[in-house]
Amino acid sequence: MVSVISLFAVALTFVFSGFSKLISIRGSSEFAENLGIFPPKIGSILGFFMPFVELFVGLGLLLFTRVYILVIAYGIIFFFLALNMKFILERKEMNCFCYGNILESKLGKGGFIHYIYLLVALGVGSMSIDQDIIKVIYNVDSINLVFVILTMLLLAANSIIIQLVIDKA
User: Fold this and answer.
1) In this structure, are residues 47 and 26 in contact, taking their beta carbons and an 8 Å threshold?
2) H or E element at residue 107
3) d(Cα 137, Cα 153) in Å, to the nearest integer?
4) What is the pLDDT of residues 132-151, one digit of tens each?
5) Collapsing DSSP states into helix, strand and coil, what is residue 101?
6) How does the average pLDDT of the chain come out, rounded?
7) Neighbouring C-alpha atoms within 13 Å toward the C-beta of 58
8) What b/e sequence results for 117-155 when a residue is b if at least 16 CB atoms lie within 10 Å of its CB, and e otherwise?
């Protein structure tokens, strides 16, 4: 059950991040264009598609966890770990647009810790790859279901809150 809760929390984080970028898609494109690690046109295209990929991965983790979805999720997490590490090492600061215009966050220590958190949660969640999250949750009795859902939501929110608190420090 712990692996299912962890996987669900990562899925919620991807869905929230993808949705928040999608509602301000132009900002997502501009962010990736201004990162300085891709040629501007490629960055703009990647920034446009990123919200869709995050939504796909988040929903995929929720509905039909398969190896290729986990591989994409790990790829996204490792990319953002490296990006945050780059900003830490260069002692640069830049808004990350991780949650669109809904929440302000920055590349750096907060983002790095957030993605380590997601990496650990996805690692634990990977143990439930052969389980369908929705079926597992559906088979939990009603009292435990409330506990399971609250735990999933708190785990996902905790990851984001840690990043925001460190960004403000």
Assistant:
1) no
2) strand 106-107
3) 14
4) 555 555 565 555 666 666 66
5) coil
6) 81
7) 20
8) bbbebbebbbebeeeebeebbeeeeeeeeeebeebbeeb
Of the candidates 22, 13, 25, 32, the one whose C-alpha atom is nearest the C-alpha of residue 115 is 13
Amino acid letter at 27? Answer: G
Residue 141 region by backbone torsions, left for phi larger than 0, else alpha for psi between -120 and 50, else beta: beta
Over residues 39-60, the mean pLDDT reads: 93
pLDDT tens track for 93-132: 788 888 888 888 888 888 888 888 888 888 887 776 655 5
Burial degree of 5 (CB within 10 A; 0-12, 13-18, 19+): buried
At CB < 8 A and 24+ separation, what contacts does 133-140 make? 133/4, 133/7, 133/8, 133/11, 133/61, 133/62, 133/63, 133/65, 134/62, 134/63, 136/1, 136/4, 137/4, 137/8, 140/1
| Count of structural domains within the chain | 1
C-alpha 168: how far from chain center: 20
Provide the domain limits for residue 22: 2-168
> How far is residue 55's CA from residue 22's CA, in Å, rounded to a whole number?
9
Predicted confidence at residue 169, as pLDDT, reads: 65
Token digits for 121? 């949660």
Predicted confidence at residue 104, as pLDDT, reads: 81
